[in-house]
Inverse folding.
């Protein structure tokens, strides 16, 4: 019995990490917008009115949507929007993509499980490190004493700031690359080579 190549089995996870590496600045910039938005929403810099809270929510979710579309287009927003438009407006295209996805899911179920398990392990490690940073260091106290955060700020301010810079963008990239991989739209299926 021939065992599968582990690198090929976690192909879309490797492509996700490669995409993040290649487009790190854009991903971090979008993450910073969301991260600071969350800090402001949580009152990290002081109380805000309800209308500003809603505006910030639109901005935060907008940056996440922008990142997802950016990845779907393999670093091209226009191409990502076109892919979404084609799925929503072209019924034949939608059925072809669903059939291709179903066939690939049935054929490569082990790869799907391996990718998700590896993704969950990485995400759990990142979340654990963020939790340690928030609860086991004096970062929050230092930021409060330095006048950067208000005295009413909680650990959640730090946790959500760093989650918006790390695990949330990682998840969005992973999900978008998964959709491309599942529908055979991933141009480069060789693990380790940078896509996009």
């Amino acid at each position: 019995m021939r065992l599968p190549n582990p690198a090929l089995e976690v192909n879309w996870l490797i492509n996700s990490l490669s995409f993040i590496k290649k487009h790190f600045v854009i991903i971090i910039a979008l993450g910073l917008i969301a991260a600071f938005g969350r800090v402001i929403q949580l009152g990290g810099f002081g109380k805000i009115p309800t209308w500003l809270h809603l505006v910030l929510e639109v901005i935060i979710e907008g940056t996440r949507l922008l990142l997802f579309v950016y990845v779907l287009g393999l670093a091209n927003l226009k191409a990502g929007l076109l892919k979404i438009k084609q799925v929503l407006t072209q019924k034949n295209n939608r059925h072809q993509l669903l059939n291709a996805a179903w066939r690939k899911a049935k054929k490569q179920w082990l790869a799907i499980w391996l990718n998700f398990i590896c993704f969950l392990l990485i995400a759990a490690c990142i979340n654990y490190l963020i939790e340690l940073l928030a609860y086991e260091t004096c970062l929050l106290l230092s930021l409060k004493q330095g006048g950067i955060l208000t005295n009413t700020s909680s650990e959640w301010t730090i946790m959500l700031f760093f989650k918006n810079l790390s695990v949330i963008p990682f998840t969005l990239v992973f999900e978008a690359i998964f959709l491309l991989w599942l529908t055979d739209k991933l141009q480069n299926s060789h693990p380790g080579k940078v896509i996009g």
About this structure: The first helix runs from residue 6 to 9. The chain has one domain: 6-80+91-182. Residues 6-80+91-182 form one domain. The CA atoms of residues 134 and 156 lie 8 Å apart.
